[in-house]
Automatic annotation (TrEMBL):
Organism (species): Tolumonas osonensis
Keyword line: ATP-binding, Hydrolase, Nucleotide-binding
GO MF entry, a single one: ATP binding
Family note: Belongs to the MoxR family.
Pfam families: AAA_3 (PF07726), AAA_lid_2 (PF17863)
Domain named ATPase AAA-3: residues: 51-181
Gene3D superfamilies assigned to the protein according to its UniProt record, in alphabetical order: Magnesium chelatase subunit I, C-Terminal domain, P-loop containing nucleotide triphosphate hydrolases
Claim: Manganese is one of the keywords in the record: no
Enzyme class: hydrolase
Protein name: MoxR-like ATPase
All residue ranges annotated as the ChlI/MoxR AAA lid domain in the record: 261-324
E.C. number: 3.6.3.-
Database matches in InterPro entries: ATPase_AAA-3, CbbQ/NirQ/NorQ/GpvN, ChlI/MoxR_AAA_lid, P-loop_NTPase
Amino acid sequence: MDNIYNEQQQTITEDACLAAIATVKEFLNKRIIGQQHLIDGLLMALLADGHILVEGPPGLAKTRSIKMLASCVESHFHRIQFTPDLLPADLTGTEIYRPQNGTFVFQPGPLFNEIVLADEINRAAAKVQSALLEAMEERQVTIGRKSYHLPPLFMVMATQNPLEQEGTYPLPEAQLDRFMLHLELDYPSAADELNILRLNHSESREEETPDAPKITQLQIFAARQYALQVIASAPIENYIVNLATATRHPQAYDADLARWLSYGVSPRSSIALLRCARVRAWLAGRNYVTPDDIQYCIYPVMRHRLMLTVEAEADGITPNDIISILLQKVVVA
């Protein structure tokens, strides 16, 4: 079965993959206005085989974006509203006893969908958040003594609201590290908001919602393989490693960095950065990674993995500030 699956994937051309993704992106740009970074991030995470954490005030199309993306992908979508009373079994599923034959039957939870939206993830307790760890990293869940594999295409998009922190549970560092990208959303410009108003009015008058273009899972897996073939030269690889190393040994680069950085990024960050840079280069029609690809991707890849000191917070320093300094201090060899 796997051989047949691989053969079907190999018959999909690179041009066909690029055309399908371009069609999806055009559709998303028409339906989600003023959040270009969010659209780019969603497509990047999808093609880089990673999960994404989106942070922003309510009403900035976070939920709408992932639902629109799911409508364009040949997949099953499920939205989970995280609340304080949520239980781990509400995500993973549970074994149900059947008295007819005296056996237990596993009832899959919402994590057994290809695209999962974890809405307001920081509203749930730590034990529920930790239930995502195995699913996000190992692509499986364990119930009792048995493990169940998740679908080959599996993507989690989590959202959180940075404004209201009462009754929330901050995500632990181990779980934050499982997210490939962390996007920060801001309010749209006045021109974009005017277009949003007009789009909302237009949609409310439409008798039928326009059909979303469909991209198959085979096309997604093929696109991932094409993106992995993008060349990353030795200087580019060294650039990534040097950026990661600078977060762990900041005293070698800048005295302020040493005061502001408590812990640096893990090797998982370097892997994610190179994968995202390859995807960005491939979507741009290039077969090689440039320093610009690294410098674009480093913010969403690293900002949630950096741990700042109390002194940095007192000085009003953000992870974005740290990354900007890193890009100034670390140069391409």
